[in-house]
Amino acid sequence: MNTVNSTELRARFARNLSALYGTEVPAYRTLVDVSERVNADVLAEHGSTAERLGDLNRVTAERHGAIRLGTPEELRQVARVFGAVGMHPTGFYDLRDAKPSPIPVVSTAFRPIEPGELAANPFRVFTSLLTPEDRRFFDADLEGRLRNFLEARQLFPEELLALADRAEAEGGLSETLADRFLELATRSFALSDEPVDRDWYTTLERISAVAADIGGVTSTHINHLTPRVLDIDALYRRMEGHGIAMIDQIQGPPRWSGPDVLLRQTSFRALAEPRRFREPDGSVGTDSLRVRFGEVEARGVALTPAGRDLYDAMVAEADHRAESTGMTRQDAAAAVWEERLPGSEDRLAAGDLAFYTFAVARGRPRDGTEPPRDLAGLLDGGWITATPVVYEDFLPRSAAGIFSSNLTSEGSVDSAREAVARDTEWLSGVLDRPVRDPMRLYAAQRGGSLRGVSEELGLPDI
Ligand code: OOG
Ligand code: NI
User: Fold this and answer.
1) Rounded to the nearest whole angstrom, what is the distance from the C-alpha of residue 66 to the centroid of ligand 2?
2) Is the CB of 68 under 6 A from ligand 1?
3) Helices and strands counted in the chain (H then E)
4) What does the UniProt keyword field contain (predicted)?
5) What residues contact residue 167 under an 8 Å CB cut-off, 6+ apart?
6) b/e code 320-359 from CB counts within 10 Å (16+ = b)
7) Residues 6 or more apart from 34 whose CB is under 8 A from it?
8) Under 8 Å CB-to-CB from 201, ≥6 apart: which residues?
9) Closest ligand to 126 CA?
10) Reduced to 3 states, what is the DSSP secondary structure of residue 25?
11) 3-class SS at 383?
């Protein structure tokens, strides 16, 4: 009997969610179509260099989703579902201090962590957990009411969780069970037509629209599903041409003359969707809610800790320059980048600013010289080649921007109150699974390739 392994389960899961979201949010289909056309054009224009950050098959299938959950138990359960399809919690994001709009959640991303798995299908889901215990947002009474409400709901049916555990333990499922697992998993993320309690939803919305989206309803749903595009500026212009109003900025690094770095994202505004409400007088009627939206992203090379520090410093300098000169943020950022970030892949690699994997160059004429012992020398002398490691994660500032571009109200925060400490270790404890550190994953990839190069060239460790 054929088993469907976790890699194939993940690819099918991503496809099913994409089909579901396309029926729920038709503008998403436009976004996917336009992305595919932009990608084909970039490939036609730039040939195989366009595929340095992932081949077209990977990029065409590539999506990230976003979901929002209410309790640690819900998070543990979703970890079992994602674990079954080879997606592991990676990175920790605390959006409670985000400026200008703090969001009462902490987040992680579930994603594949092995290079081969990422190449096969890099589906990732940005997963946020509400923090009702944070007194800056919720008082003790509201926390109690939220917990009662959330504890009474079941987002993931027992049958789904049992199948997930089995798939994770056995590395896959039979065709029949795989179908059932995928049907139940996909359905868990569909928008429910269960009526929303108006009073309760409004109470939460006064604190935070995200709290209402999470704790005001009895189910969860995909908040957005994001395709990847090879030229986000071209995509942005084309979407406006289709009459879809995008948010006013591309989040993340500016467009500049050097290599694509980290992650650039943009989105179109939350869409008004019909939702049923139960009014205080008990009647049920249809109204609309704007909580879901469309987003698209372009990915570049992952930065090392040193590169990331430089990035953060450049972001701060761009903010300052925009404020003090009246330049647009994009123009200020582009100017700062041209000044401060090395503009070639080899310089980024040799300066330890970005992660690359290295391989011994084929076809270098043997001229009897000894290979140098340092990375910069090996790159300059054409002894080795560098391939960028794709940034597979998220950016806290962009994530906060995506959340807040999507809020219906400002919400209310009492920042004088004490925050509850939350970090990666806390999240690992909640999940009872290790939360991976993205930097370590990238560093391990680079380290493995360098050991191979040292061995092949007969050098001591580079
Ligand atoms: C998640 C927002 C973060 C991203 O791409 O940075 C995100 C949410 O709105 O639930 O998806
Ligand atoms: Ni997103």
Assistant:
1) 6
2) yes
3) 18, 12
4) Dioxygenase, Iron, Oxidoreductase
5) 6, 9, 84, 85, 173, 177, 178, 181
6) ebbeeeeeebeebbbbbbeeebbeebebbbbbebbbbbbe
7) 235, 238, 239, 242
8) 212, 216, 217, 277
9) 1
10) coil
11) coil
Give residue for tokens 């994770």. 168
The C-alpha atoms of residue 276 and residue 262 are separated, in whole angstroms, by 40
Separation CA 315–CA 312 (nearest Å) = 5
Residue nearest to atom 6 of ligand 1 (CA): 399
Helix (H) or strand (E) holding 249: none
Percent of all residues in the chain with a pLDDT value above 70, rounded to a whole number? 98
Fold of 3-229+390-431: 2,3-Dihydroxybiphenyl 1,2-Dioxygenase; domain 1 (3.10.180)
d(CA 76, CA 458): 47
Q: How far is CA 433 from CA 87, 121, 313, in A?
A: 12, 22, 33
Handedness of CA 405, 406, 410, 416 (dihedral sign): negative
pLDDT in tens, 381-430: 999 999 999 999 999 988 988 887 766 666 777 777 877 889 999 999 99
Structure tokens at 81: 């579902």
To 5 degrees, how large is the angle CA 218–CA 222–CA 223? 100
Question: Which of 159, 1, 174, 19 has its CA nearest to residue 81?
Answer: 159
Per the CB < 8 A criterion, the answer to whether 359 and 385 are in contact is yes
- Rounded distance between C-alpha atoms, residue 247 and residue 398, angstroms: 12
Query: Does residue 126's CB lie within 6 angstroms of at least one atom of ligand 1?
Result: yes
How many C-alpha atoms does 281 have within 13 Å on its Cβ side?
A: 2
Which among 403, 400, 405 is positioned nearest to 248, based on CA atoms?
405
* Residue 163: both structure tokens together: 């199948």
Residue 292 near residue 224, CB atoms below 8 Å:
yes
Place of tokens 């976790």: 6
Closest listed ligand to the CA of 295: 2
Please state the domain extents for the chain.
Answer: 3-229+390-431, 303-344, 355-388+434-462
Ligand 1 atom nearest to CA at 399: 6
Q: What is the pLDDT of residues 14-70, one digit of tens each?
A: 999 999 999 998 889 989 999 999 999 999 999 888 899 999 999 999 999 999 999
Q: Is 388 helix (H, G, I), strand (E, B) or coil?
A: strand
Report pLDDT for 271: 76
* CA 66 – ligand 1 centroid, Å: 6
Q: What's the gap in Å between 266 CA and the centre of ligand 1?
A: 11
Question: Which residue has a Cα nearest atom 4 of ligand 1?
Answer: 399
Amino acid 300: pLDDT:
97
Name the band, by pLDDT with cuts 50, 70 and 90, for residue 353: very high
Q: Which residue type sits at 292?
A: R
Q: Which atom of ligand 1 is nearest to the CA of 67?
A: 10
